[in-house]
Amino acid sequence: MADFEQATDEEVLLIDDELWEQLIELTDGAAALCFQCGVCTAICPWGLVRQKPLSVRTLMRQAQLGLQEKNGSLWLCTTCAQCEAYCPRGVNIVDVFRSLRTVAWENRNPEKGLPSLMWSIFWNDNPWSQPPTQRALWANNLDIPIFNPQEHEVMLYIGCTSSYDQRAQKIASALVHILRGAGVEFGFLGEEEPCCGEAVLSVGHKHYFEEVAAKTAQVFQERGVTQMVTISPHCYDVFRNHYPPFSNGFQPLHYTQYLFNLISEGRLQFMKPLDLQVTFQDPCYLGRINQEYQAPREILKSIPGVELVEMENSAEDALCCGGGGGRMWLETPIGERFSDLRVEQAVQTGADILAAACPFCVACLEDSLKVRKTENFEVRDIAEIAARAL
Amino acid sequence: MAELQIVVCVKVVPKPEEIRVDPETHLLERTNARSEINPPDMNAMEMALSMKDRYGGRISLLSMGPPFFEPNLRVALAMGADHIYLLSDPAFAGADTLATTYTLVQGIRKIGDVDVILCGEESSDGATGQVPPGLAEWLNIPQLTLLTDVSIDQTLRTARGRREIKGGYEILEVPLPCVISVKTACNEPRFMDYRLRSWALEKDRLTVWDAGDLDAEPGHIGLTGSPTIVTGLAEAPYRERRREFLQGSPGEVVQELAGILRKEVEV
Fold this sequence. Notes:
Strand content of chain B: 25-35%
CATH class of chain B: Alpha Beta
CATH topology of chain B: Rossmann fold
Distance between the termini of chain B: 61 Å
Radius of gyration of chain A: 22 Å
Number of strands of chain B: 13
Mean pLDDT of chain A: 94
Largest sheet of chain A: 4 strands, parallel
Number of helices of chain B: 5
Strand order of the largest sheet of chain A: 2-1-3-4
Largest interface: A-B, 20 and 16 residues
Number of domains of chain B: 1
Mean pLDDT of chain B: 93
Order of helices and strands of chain A: HHHHHHHHEHHEHHEHEHEHEHEHEH
Helix content of chain B: 10-25%
CATH class of the largest domain in chain A: Alpha Beta
Shape of chain A: globular
CATH superfamily of chain B: HUPs
Structural class of chain A: alpha/beta
Structural class of chain B: alpha/beta
CATH architecture of chain B: 3-Layer(aba) Sandwich
Number of strands of chain A: 8
Strand order of the largest sheet of chain B: 11-10-9-12-8-1-6-7-13
Number of helices of chain A: 18
Strand content of chain A: 5-15%
Low-confidence stretches of chain B: none
Oligomer: heterodimer
């Protein structure tokens, strides 16, 4: 009897058949493959910063059974896909997490702060609660033409963060200078550039994402966009992997891929030696998720005087900056920021610069560097380094 | 016990940064401005929806404005409300808060048996904050303004609310029916419920009433019913930030800052 009473203190878990079926449908049965080995939990970077790691395995089990996640850990996931790189069954874990989030939205149980993120995109067409009319202010002095398919070989997709965030605007400006240096004919959509909706997708609002993607794809179609270059790997990923049902006829490239092509074709050359040791932060959405490890490294190597040194965790093992999966819009307490560890690893290499290729990485890493107060060490986007070498 | 009848007054406003002031006529130019739901009304919406979550009931959205308000009202509907009443008639144009509240009250009377009328604190374009008290005056019912939280006792038929005041808060209680204005940013408005998104776009979800439907006194509506006269309009001067950064140890920075403040603002 005592045992029974004790047992009743614990929450009774009820398996929800409807939820189970819904998850199977949303994920195409991805969770079913999981055999609960727990490698995902062991490799998840939250284990590096928290006593109690994010139990990826538990969430996978809940998804298998049709159980509601209730303790909020679902929203910790940065969708960095480190777990997927190690999963012996090749489970699409990020997809399962996104689907669990979709269910949480449907049950009106999203993480605090995320409804405001959705409203910002709905009213302002950007996740930063900034006026849509001010989207192209950053480019006022750059004289970038509005994209015209007859005149331009490529449409430069700036993205919301590089349009509004003052730090990331510098990345966009640097890229504009490089493209001009290489003689690339390009344009952008200026104030009319629509949000890609990656923030919506990554926090799992599947239905709103479909609405955003359809609208944005239509804008690209009307503007005759076929070749597109993005600044953020997040925009690149969403266009490449999640837009196909909504669009046909435009091919996205991350700017590092595009610049690497220009270098290979002999159109882009760096003349000014820089004499720098550089280490590189693989953005999750460029590296692990889209398997592009080479392009950013080749750009750095093609700059005279630049020596590339690798960090303890690089390429497939690269440590996430902490900004993916909607975490850019959620608070991460001091002491739990992956970027602190990453900056530490970067400083340990003895490099002069920690290079990144993503506005989120730059923001997170630079914040951590400011706290660490390291002198003679910088966080820069590859575009900024390359622009110095023109 | 009868179902709780909630009315939320919703205004569709131009995005503030997109309004231009005509330098010649000094009139507000909003034709090219994008519209949004008045942000404080979103907080009223959230309060109404959490009331419905707790007590059940029916939420009617009430708005006075031109037909172009409709798409945004349907957005609010998809948050979980039940019906939209749009009071639309060219005769309502040019209304100040007196004529607006009269017109809204005619709508509330026509909806009938309303227990709670919720409003945002003020509108982002007019910013008078006069509509909630105005409604209570026309209806001759109690009002609770600037609440951050509210509970309803359906047996005693009372509303009890919390209002932040300097140095603390006060708890206020009034009998139903009553008007409540909601403190801006006191809650996080939920996003649309996508299961309701297409339902909310159905034709029958919206009722349009004109001046005739409302039995409105011609002298109380629109420009005729508006005693307010705008005698002048001035643009606030734009303040240029100087972007000066002080260097030195924290002590030195404080010293220098104190010096600047003394000089510039004569503390």
